[in-house]
């Protein structure tokens, strides 16, 4: 039985002290048709900063409020003192408070259309160039960029595209290959499934059977009412659309649990106990039960995810994760550049079978946002698997993490390397040190620190040579 | 005395046979606010193409009609047979017939604003990716990119930004450092001056004195009429604005002569004799003459530039070079991303003194095009001098070429190298072989071919390794 209080989490958050700044940023870095500006947020801590050329550690903010990432990237805070680093967290455009067009930002493509990874990276170039000119002692500082998940993709791409701005990148759980023709669409669900199956033999089976149970129970008005009540839904289900929303929510819950399967309590996607998959699976033991009983049992497991704090009064399927991870922004990105094919067969995975249908997907995107997806955009821009001309990138991946299927899992060259953490969930290595950390993540962090040290040393050696 | 007929030039042009194709291209590769398409032209020759993996030689089209570059890049045509290469010339957006918004393309920023080097390179990524998928046998072909002048900048930046698309770049006379804070603004004019001074001691002096002579002669209505008549201007000068236009034209003429100072007759910026600076200077011998006599003498030199063919009925100062080099497009680029500071003092150079005044420049740009220049855009995007993370680029520069002052004139690394051609004018090495070629350009071309060979070999070795 896992007992945890939230106080330890909160005090950890308080431990990271930073100041908040704002930068007047260009809406469009690549063209002159739109010459608007907007206000972009970034966070700075100079607590351990050595003004005589200490490095800059830059977190390439991803799809959410930047304070969320500042609080969940303890590794950067942990190592800043020994590197005497200035710590900067940049907020990704269209997330948190960095909305180029305020409330209108997602209203139509003329406003939403500038939400792309290319524009985000160009934002970070401008912010860093500005900081280096504005902060005394930072002019020549080497910059190391960090990021997890989409932030890890950005970190890797930042080094690939702007090696004159960042000297190296720690790209944690960065699925830069989770795109069309690069990774089979069924691999992701299979890793989620393996995580649950390894917790208990019955667990994955209960979840796999739940889809049919939901479909049969909710096929009647009474059934919808029953399940709404049994699962304490905030709004009772009335339509097939509501049922679909609930199933989408569940798909996300099982995925998020696998991603956040950390060996200690954490509050990333949601407040969760240590080893949450094991905790959930301890509730899911009898796959042979009739539908309603099975769904009641499933709810016990579900409760671990949506109400670990005991504060939730009801289950809201519209709220998949931490509110600070903005669904709207990511939905738009997934409909434009970040088109990541997923498919499930319900046999090799525990999800409801669903093929990947790009045509249907594109139609839906056009309906929702007025945009046509560009499934090959990221590949054309950043190279897909063809990154052997790059340098100074660590790609770390945990094998519990379903996103590892889209990660770089081989050494591309002597300076673009893969670090694998067998016991790791989603970017565990970027989190703060914890007594429950498995040895493999300690080793990964040691390696990452060694690479950072060598990148900084090479940088100063080059500076030296240029002056001679 | 130089005697030349144009027929040899024309037959050379005819010698390059290609087919013309069109590609449906995105207007904006980096955002989704504008999802328009346009039709882009490219030229292909498969005459020497080996379908079993022969390389693709891609000329990164620059500021003009692509046929002009196809006709003036003989080096690519000369070496295609021995490499069994497919030759492709891509037309730069907003030039030639590749106008995204037809007649409206330059009417306002919402149409003109997509004319940037970043968009142009992304165009070339799409075209090459399409060609590799569409042309049988090209799927795995290595791509070598070529370019001269701004095209050379594009070639270098193409390799820097998209090493997964192009395996190497021959960047001829590519002034990637001709930007704010990277190259002093007065160097360019000094090289032009040195070219004229080395032809004859009096020559540079005649030109240097001509500005005061023009100013004094045109200060009266009669003087304007006299000079209009003496110089056979198509439209007589009436205003100070007309005088300024004439002086701007002259500044360009002297610059163009230095750039096109080839050892044989050529038709690049204008039809010119061999060693045109020497030919012009043979007319400019007496700097001690009174203003009107000096201007009459200057006109004899000028005639070499604007009327070498004997076909011109009058001098049109609005037409600075070959009509296929589109001034409007480049004016826009110079007002947005390609902000290249030039300044003259009339002492160390032969031009009328003119400081570099960014504020005034920006004001003028805003008036003309409704845009604000971004003087650091190219530097932020491509790194300026900080290109040591790049690979497989040859930067060639001729020392007669004023653009060499903004070129990469040192070996950045073992694979980003500088090739200097002491007797070379503007991208002489990219031109077709000629009996009058100096040994230094033959050596440069041999080196470039050796690098191309090694890039292709490395590429196939990597392919081999990936299959093992």
Automatic annotation (TrEMBL), chains A, B:
| InterPro entries in UniProt | AB_hydrolase_fold (IPR029058), Peptidase_S28 (IPR008758), Ser_carbopepase_S28_SKS (IPR042269)
Drop me one GO molecular function for this one: serine-type carboxypeptidase activity
Biological processes per GO annotation = proteolysis
Could you name the domain of life of the organism this protein comes from? Eukaryota
Q: Which reaction does it catalyse?
A: Cleavage of a -Pro-|-Xaa bond to release a C-terminal amino acid
Please give the subunit comment from the record.
Homodimer.
Q: Report the protein's function.
A: Cleaves C-terminal amino acids linked to proline in peptides such as angiotensin II, III and des-Arg9-bradykinin. This cleavage occurs at acidic pH, but enzymatic activity is retained with some substrates at neutral pH.
- Recorded protein name is Lysosomal Pro-X carboxypeptidase
């Amino acid at each position: 039985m896992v007992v945890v209080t939230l106080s330890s989490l909160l005090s950890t958050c308080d431990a990271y002290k930073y100041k908040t700044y704002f930068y007047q940023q260009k809406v469009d870095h690549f063209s002159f048709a739109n010459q608007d500006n907007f206000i972009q947020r970034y966070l700075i801590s100079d607590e351990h900063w050595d003004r005589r050329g200490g490095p800059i550690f830059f977190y390439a903010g991803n799809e959410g409020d930047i304070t969320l990432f500042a609080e969940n990237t303890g590794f950067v805070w942990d190592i800043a003192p020994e590197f005497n680093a200035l710590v900067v967290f940049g907020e990704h455009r269209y997330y948190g408070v960095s909305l180029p067009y305020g409330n209108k930002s997602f209203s139509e493509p003329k406003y939403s259309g500038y939400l792309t990874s290319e524009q985000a990276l160009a934002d970070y170039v401008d912010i860093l160039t500005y900081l280096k000119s504005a902060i005394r002692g930072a002019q020549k500082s080497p910059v190391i960029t960090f990021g997890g998940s989409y932030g890890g993709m950005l970190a890797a791409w930042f080094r690939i595209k702007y090696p004159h701005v960042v000297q190296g990148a720690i790209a944690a759980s960065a699925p830069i290959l989770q795109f069309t023709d690069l990774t089979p669409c069924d691999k992701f669900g299979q890793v989620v499934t393996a995580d649950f199956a390894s917790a208990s033999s019955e667990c994955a089976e209960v979840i796999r059977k739940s889809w049919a149970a939901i479909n049969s129970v909710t096929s009647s008005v009474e059934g919808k009412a029953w399940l709404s009540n049994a699962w304490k839904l905030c709004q009772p289900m009335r339509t097939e659309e509501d049922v679909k929303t609930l199933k989408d929510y569940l798909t996300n819950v099982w995925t998020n649990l696998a991603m956040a399967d950390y060996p200690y309590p954490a509050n990333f996607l949601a407040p969760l106990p240590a080893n949450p998959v094991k905790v959930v699976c301890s509730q899911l033991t009898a796959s042979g039960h009739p539908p309603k009983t099975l769904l009641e049992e499933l709810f016990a497991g579900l409760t671990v995810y949506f109400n670990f704090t005991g504060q939730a009064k009801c289950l809201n399927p519209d709220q998949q994760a931490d509110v600070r991870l903005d669904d709207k922004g990511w939905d738009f990105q997934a409909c434009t550049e970040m088109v990541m094919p997923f498919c499930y067969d319900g046999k090799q995975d525990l999800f409801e079978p669903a093929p990947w249908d790009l045509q249907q997907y594109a139609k839906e995107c056009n309906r929702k946002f007025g945009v046509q997806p560009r499934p090959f955009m990221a590949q054309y821009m950043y190279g897909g698997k063809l990154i052997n001309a790059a340098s100074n990138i660590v790609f770390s991946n945990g094998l519990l993490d379903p996103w590892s299927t889209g990660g770089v899992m081989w050494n591309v060259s002597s300076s673009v390397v893969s670090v694998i953490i067998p016991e790791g969930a989603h970017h565990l290595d970027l989190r703060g040190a914890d007594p429950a950390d498995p040895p493999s993540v300690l080793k990964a962090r040691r390696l990452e620190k060694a690479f950072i040290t060598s990148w900084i040393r090479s940088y100063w050696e080059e500076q030296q040579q240029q002056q001679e």
